[in-house]
Amino acid sequence: MKTPLLFATSGIRGKSNHVITPELGIRVGRAVANHVNTNLKTNAAVIIGFDNRRNSHSIANTIAAGLSSSGRDVLIFNAPIPTPKLIFSTIKNEAAAGIMITGSHLPADENGILLFETDGRYYKGILNEDNIQLVNWDLLGRITNIENIEDNYETFLRKIAQNNLVDNKMNILVDPAHGPIKDYLQLAIKPYCNNILKINWEDDDRLPGRPSEPTSSNLTKTRLALTSSKSDLAISTDMDGDRVIFTSHSGATISGDYIGALFAREYWKNNPNKPIVVPINTSAIIKFTAEKYNGKIIYCKVGPPSIINSILENNVDFAFEETGKYIFTEYAIWPDSVISTIKLLKLMNESGQNLDELLHEFPTFYQVKEKVPCVRNKADEVMKILITEIDKLFTENKIVNTLDGIRVDFSNNSWFIIRPSGTEDYIRIFTEHNTLESSKELNNTCQKMIFDILEKITD
Prior knowledge:
Layout: E1 5-7, E2 12-15, H1 22-39, E3 46-50, H2 56-69, E4 74-77, H3 83-92, E5 97-101, E6 110-116, E7 125-127, E8 143-146, H4 153-163, E9 170-175, H5 182-189, E10 193-198, H6 220-229, E11 233-237, E12 244-248, E13 253-254, H7 256-270, E14 275-279, H8 285-293, E15 296-300, H9 304-314, E16 318-321, E17 325-328, H10 337-351, H11 355-358, E18 366-373, H12 376-393, E19 398-401, E20 406-410, E21 415-420, E22 426-433, H13 436-458
Parallel strand pairs: 3-4, 3-5, 4-8, 9-10, 9-11, 14-15
Antiparallel strand pairs: 1-7, 2-6, 5-6, 11-12, 12-13, 16-17, 18-22, 19-20, 20-21, 21-22
Helix pairs in contact: 1-2, 4-5, 5-10, 7-8, 12-13
């Protein structure tokens, strides 16, 4: 029996050539054609892009074959591109859908498939493989290899950079994790720079410089290069270029929550009482900022699909998530590391402050992220029991939010969230507190609750 084609929070993910296989590509292509033919009734082509992981190009080709066999025309980029460019091209060309083959922030031996609707929304759900229609030879979809298409992404970014340009020049280090976003970053930030220092720049599908995910633990060499070169800022992306993490001139790698709060602060200074969107696992730093600058927060479920849906439903101008994804809807409905970088450089230039100085007023909260093994078919039962156990264990005043998992906020700005993984057999626990030791203690308490419940339900 085939595994259902479930596009979860981050599409379909798995080991290259074991889960993300050519056979899966054929199934996805035919199922996407079925989805488009059933729901959209359009003759527009489907656009396909891919990053430069080892099997991304081959999976892109098999998806194209699956689409063609169901009568759907395909435009496929002939070289690796970043995910923001794929979304941009899908929207600007009113494609029937956009498909991106990318491992994003995953390890080098993993890959994934993302599906975008014609308006740029992430598709989330199960693709229907019933009633797949294979067409006669003369109705096969045409597959066209493309380098660039109309309203190209480069021009779009250049205009944003020009509109935000100021005079002060900086020395900037760029670490694109060997991904195709590098050329677009260089294009956009060049007007801001005296010098651009490059690290992990070579096209190399083994990702030899560092893992794709730009976490603090993965950026040790990047920080050393920054401080030794005395650069003003380091810009580190994941391979497909939708997330970006910044490191200040002092060598401090800044959480996406704090950069998001910084952007939100500037927004609320000019737009008090207006809302922004953040997922339910966002740091209390955004609550601190909203209270100080009369801002409003709309919480949504975790992941870009929910964030973008909430943006559109609430007509919001800014959103972010802690992984380093920021959405400025005056320019784009998708997270884009180049746009985010331009916005931060402008803020630094206009204020005359470095990144540490811009963040000086924010208090420090300490996060701990852990996970407990739990097969997915037991996770729902665990979560139901957790509600009762949380009330028994935490008797103080608290706010409980069950929008996505269970989040509990306390009056001292500490909080935790417990939620099942959408793609793996784990239950994840995020905790945040005023000290690292307190955050670890809170996380250990949450882990013990889950282990105790699992022990009871498996006896």
